[in-house]
Design goal:
The protein is mainly β. The longest helix is centred in the N-terminal third of the chain and has 6 residues.
C-alpha cells in the first residue's frame, strides 16, 4: 500500500498532479530497477489497537495513519488510516484490511500482499534458513494454482497495457488447475480471475510428497494475482492484488488496471484467507 508491486520510475500522476516516490530498487537482480517497489508501509512501526485470544481463536488489529509519517506523506500526500486485523480461527488465518480516507480529496490506491512459502511443505523446512535443504527437483515438483484466465503483458516487469489469454501459452500460464512448476520461473501478474458464486477467488501451492496444500482465498476486491517463483530459489509467492503493477499510471492512459479512487470520508475493505489442508 498505497500501490502494490511497482510504480514506473517512482512517479505517478493523479487528477492533474504529479507525485514522486523514492522507494526505489537501486541496482542488481531486479529487472525493474529504478521503479518504486512494494509500497510505503511494510517496514513502518504500526500501532496495535487490540489483541484478544480465547478458546475460539485470536485476533490482533493494528493501524497506521499514513499522514502522521512525514516520509510517507511527502511521497503520498493523501491522509488515510490503514487498519489490518489478523484473525486465527479453526486453523485458518484471515487478514481483514480497511482503508479509511480521512482527507478532503479523492485518494488513489491499490492494495496487495507478498507472502512467501517454501516450495516443499514439510516439517523442518522453514523460511529463510531452511531453504538450502530443498533441492531443485523438489522445487520443480511443487504444484501451483493461480485462478486467472489472462496475464498482463510485461516489459521489464512493467505492464504494457495489453492482456493475453492464458491459453495463448497454456504450458506457461494456464494455472487454473494445480500444475508442477518444473523448470519454469515466474514473476507475472495474472488477471481475469476465476471467482466462485460469492465472488471469491482461490489459489494455492501443493507438495505431492506430503499431500499438503496451502490455499489462499481472496474476496471480490482482489482482481489480480501475482505469482513469483524464481528458478534459482525454492520459494513461491502467491499475491492477491486489487490492481495490476503501475495501475496508477496505466489509469492515466485510460486502461482499466484496477486503480481504486476512494472518495473523501469513504472506506475500503478487503479480506484474504490462508489455510493448510490435505489433498488426494
Amino acid at each position: 500500500f498505497p500501490f502494490p508491486n511497482r510504480v514506473r520510475d517512482g512517479v505517478y500522476t493523479f487528477e492533474g498532479e504529479t507525485y514522486r516516490m523514492d522507494r526505489l530498487m537501486a541496482t542488481g537482480w531486479d529487472k525493474g530497477a529504478g521503479q518504486a517497489i512494494h509500497g510505503l508501509v511494510a517496514d513502518k512501526q504500526w500501532t496495535v489497537e487490540s489483541a484478544v485470544a480465547d478458546e475460539n481463536g485470536a485476533t490482533v488489529t493494528s493501524f497506521l495513519q499514513l499522514d502522521a509519517d512525514p516520509e510517507i506523506f511527502e511521497q503520498y500526500p493523501f491522509p488515510c488510516r490503514l487498519t489490518v486485523a489478523y484473525c486465527l480461527h479453526n486453523g485458518a488465518l484471515e487478514m481483514r484490511t480497511q482503508v479509511a480516507n480521512t482527507g478532503s480529496k479523492i485518494l488513489p490506491m491499490g492494495f496487495g500482499i507478498h507472502p512467501w512459502f517454501p516450495a516443499a511443505l514439510r516439517p523442518g523446512v522453514k523460511l529463510p534458513s531452511g531453504l538450502s535443504a530443498i533441492t531443485s527437483q523438489e522445487r520443480g515438483g511443487a504444484e501451483v494454482h493461480v485462478p486467472a484466465a489472462a496475464v498482463w503483458e510485461l516489459d521489464k516487469l512493467m505492464p504494457t497495457g495489453a492482456v493475453i489469454p492464458v491459453t495463448q501459452d497454456a504450458e506457461m500460464y494456464d494455472l487454473r488447475r494445480h500444475r508442477p512448476l518444473n523448470r519454469r520461473a515466474y514473476d507475472h501478474v495474472f488477471t481475469e480471475v476465476v471467482a466462485n458464486a460469492e465472488g471469491w477467488s482461490e489459489g494455492g501451492l501443493r507438495d505431492p510428497a506430503t499431500g499438503l496444500e496451502i490455499f489462499i482465498a481472496a474476496d471480490g476486491q482482489f482482481r489480480e494475482w501475482v505469482l513469483y517463483a524464481p528458478e534459482s530459489s525454492p520459494v513461491i509467492a502467491l499475491e492477491p492484488y486489487t490492481c495490476t503493477t503501475d495501475a496508477v499510471n496505466l489509469a492515466q492512459r485510460g486502461i482499466d488496471a484496477g486503480l481504486i479512487s476512494l472518495a473523501a470520508g469513504a472506506r475500503w475493505t478487503g479480506v484474504i484467507r490462508f489455510g493448510l489442508r490435505r489433498f488426494e
